[in-house]
Write a structure and sequence with these properties.
Elements: E1 2-4, E2 7-10, E3 13-14, H1 15-22, E4 26-30, H2 31-44, E5 50-55, H3 62-71, E6 74-77, H4 80-88, E7 96-98, H5 105-114, E8 117-120, H6 123-133, E9 139-144, E10 166-167, H7 171-181, E11 185-189, H8 199-213, E12 221-223, H9 241-259, E13 264-267, H10 271-274, E14 278-289, E15 294-298, H11 307-310, E16 317-319, E17 327-333, E18 341-349, E19 356-359, E20 380-385, E21 388-393, H12 398-402
Parallel strand pairs: 4-20, 5-6, 5-13, 6-7, 7-8, 8-9, 9-10, 9-11, 11-12, 12-13, 15-17
Antiparallel strand pairs: 1-2, 2-3, 4-14, 14-15, 14-19, 16-19, 17-18, 20-21
Length: 411
């Protein structure tokens, strides 16, 4: 989002104009930022065969999926429903990797039937899968490297108490199952967490996974997950992708030379690709001053953007209606019957009732985690592509709330 004179714009389109056209609250995504992030990762890993699989759990709108497909991306899915969406968006099954956790074998079999890549993270499932399919269906195995990484306990997935992946210390058990069931292992995978800042964390995880890879002789690719940190605050420190690309490419190529053939290096970024592309726009309903605090209450809440309440995440907030206003201290809250605080004691240009606030970094896990709590409608979604705005999800209505309910005639 750019400030031009006395107005904020996204790719040349007025932010307040979007609110007048589509109403609030509103999610807005800019494909130019998505493409910038995608190409940045590509450029950092030019020295290796690279496959980027967009982790679509961050934002599964069909238009966003189709856009990443146009860039050459594959897609990382965690549910059969995401698999179906990826297929609907036009992805070839071979470009879809399915990485579920704690799902039934029946769901995995559904994924097998449509021909996507299967990633297994549980020993019992691996054994049952091998018993059914043997060498007929190639698999990837998700290992847990026991590395504590990530910006929040809830998004740290590679430590010893995590439910994700098969412990690296169970490698011998995995080998026994693979040998006895003649399982065709074509990939290894790990994902240690999100918001990782230290490049050395990735390198250490990669070292562990590459050591493990020597135990499997038919590998085609190794997937190192993602977790790159993006900037939430102005001038925030982020993962040095260029340094990571330089060091990890060297590490990976050295491994491939030892292994005897060149493999594909995979990443599955989600937040890294879409977080900074998105803005959440909400209108200020009330200014409420108490003995200690000035509240700015907006026409939204944890039902639309739960990350600040769920993860204590920071979203930079800008008053797009009053760029020249004198900065004051506000606590921005929602209209839900809970304590749904978006930000405490924020310095924001003077907020007036009716102003529009823009929440930055709303492209990942914003709309996807939205709900109908308090029977509120979920917002509309807008995609900005090459200087034009498109409605990609309509705002919900009362009919949407009740369409799956069955009204009894017994009362």
């Amino acid at each position: 989002m750019e400030r031009l004179s006395n107005e904020y714009t996204i790719d040349g389109i007025s932010v307040t104009g979007l609110c007048e056209k589509y109403g609030t609250p509103l999610y807005v995504y800019n494909t130019a930022i998505m493409e910038r992030q995608y190409k940045r990762l590509q450029d950092a890993f030019k020295g290796v065969p690279l496959k980027i699989n967009y982790a679509c759990k961050a934002l599964t709108n069909l238009n966003v999926l189709s856009f990443f497909k146009s860039l050459g991306s594959g897609v990382d899915t965690v549910s059969i429903q995401e698999v179906w969406l990826a297929l609907k968006a036009g992805f070839d099954p071979k470009d879809i990797i399915y990485t579920p956790n704690c799902v039934s074998l029946e769901e995995i079999e559904m994924a097998v039937k449509v021909g996507v890549r299967i990633n297994i993270d549980n020993i019992s499932v691996l054994e049952r899968f091998g018993h059914i399919y043997g060498a007929k269906v190639p698999v990837c195995i998700r290992m847990n490297p026991h590395i504590m990484a990530g910006g929040n306990q809830k998004i740290s997935t590679g430590h010893i108490d995590s439910k994700f992946g098969i412990s690296i210390h169970q490698l011998r058990h995995v080998e026994r199952i693979v040998t006895s069931e003649k399982i065709h292992v074509v990939g290894l995978h790990m994902h240690t967490g999100s918001d990782i800042l230290d490049v050395d964390v990735f390198l250490r995880g990669a070292e562990i996974l590459l050591e493990t890879a020597h135990h499997f002789k038919e590998l085609e690719y190794i997937d190192f997950g993602s977790g790159f940190k993006v900037g939430y605050k102005p001038d925030d420190v982020t993962t040095d992708i260029e340094l990571l690309g330089e060091k990890m490419s060297e590490q990976f190529n050295a491994f491939c030379k030892e292994y005897g053939r060149q493999l594909t290096l995979m990443f599955e970024p989600g937040k890294f690709l879409v977080s900074e592309s998105g803005y959440f726009l909400a209108k200020v309903n009330v200014i409420k001053q108490t003995t200690a605090t000035v509240f700015a209450g907006v026409d939204s809440g944890l039902n639309h953007l739960i990350r600040p309440m769920f993860y204590d995440s920071y979203h930079h907030i800008v008053n797009v209606s009053n760029p020249e206003g004198q900065p004051r201290i506000y606590t921005v809250v929602g209209y839900i019957c809970e304590t749904d605080t978006f930000g405490w004691d924020r310095k924001i240009n003077e907020i007036r009732e009716g102003d529009v606030l823009a929440f930055h970094n709303a492209g990942a896990y914003g709309f996807m985690m939205a709900s109908n709590y308090n029977s509120r409608f979920r917002p509309a979604e807008i995609l900005i592509h090459k200087g034009k705005d498109y409605l990609i999800t309509k705002r919900e209505s009362l009919e949407d709330l009740v369409k799956n309910q069955i009204v009894l005639e017994a009362f």
